[in-house]
Amino acid sequence: MLGKMSAVANWFCLRAQPKHEHIAAVHLKKMDGVGVFLPRIRFQHNTRQGLAWVTEALFPGYLFASFDWHLSLRQVQAARGVMGVVHFGARWPVLDDGIIEELKQAVGTEELHVISATLHPGDTVEIAEGAMRGLRAVVSRVLPRRARVQVLLELLGRQTTIEVPANLIIKEGDVREGLFPLEV
User: pLDDT tens digits for 154-182?
Assistant: First the structure.
C-alpha cells in the first residue's frame, strides 16, 4: 500500500548493508518504538572443505521494521547496518500487517527456519537448479559419501533414475517451496 503516513507504527522494508542484516536488526531492536522482523534460513551448503551449515537472511539485503514514520524515520535510517528505508521518490510503501504475519507463521517465532538436510528413500523432492529445475522426483537412494542423491523421475513418459547433488534438492513441504515457487 502506498500513501499517507499515519501517527502509528507501520511496517516498512529496510535496505541493509551487504551481509549486515543481522547487525541492523540488533541495533534496531535496541530502539524504543521500533519492532524488527528479520526472517532467516539455515541450510547446508557445499564448500571446499565439505558441507557446512550456513545462516542467511531469507531476503538478502533486506529486513522489516515497524515504527512511527514521523517520529523515528531519521533514527531508523541512521542505525548501524541500515542503508535506508525503501521508498520511491516521495512515496514510502507501507507493508500490510497480514503479510508480516504470514511470513512470521511460515518462518517461525524464532525468525529462523532450518531447512532439513535429511533425505530418505521415498521422499518426494523437487530439483532446484540445472536442466531438470522444477521437476518432481522421488528419492530412491541417498549417497552421503558423495553428497549426492539418486532420484527417480518421469521424463518423456518413462521413469528414469539420475544422480543429483544433494544441495540442489528441495524436500516436499520445505518452507522455501511455499514462499518462493521455483518458476521464474
Answer: 877 788 888 888 777 888 765 443 444 43
With contact defined as beta carbons under 8 Å apart, do 34 and 67 qualify?
yes
Please give the tally of structural domains in the chain. 2
Query: Residue 22 is inside which H or E element, if any?
Result: helix 21-29
Helix (H, G, I), strand (E, B) or coil at 26: helix
Query: Is-above-0.85 flag for pTM?
Result: no
165 in a domain, yes or no?
yes
Paired residues of 161 in beta bridges: 152
Q: In 3-state terms, what secondary structure has residue 102?
A: helix
38: in domain: yes
Q: Is residue 132 one of the residues assigned to a domain?
A: yes
Give, in order, the Cα–Cα distances in Å from 116 to each of 14, 53, 60, 68, 120: 29, 11, 20, 38, 11
The three cell numbers of residue 82 are 541500515
Minimal CA–CA distance to 65: which of 53, 44, 79, 52?
79
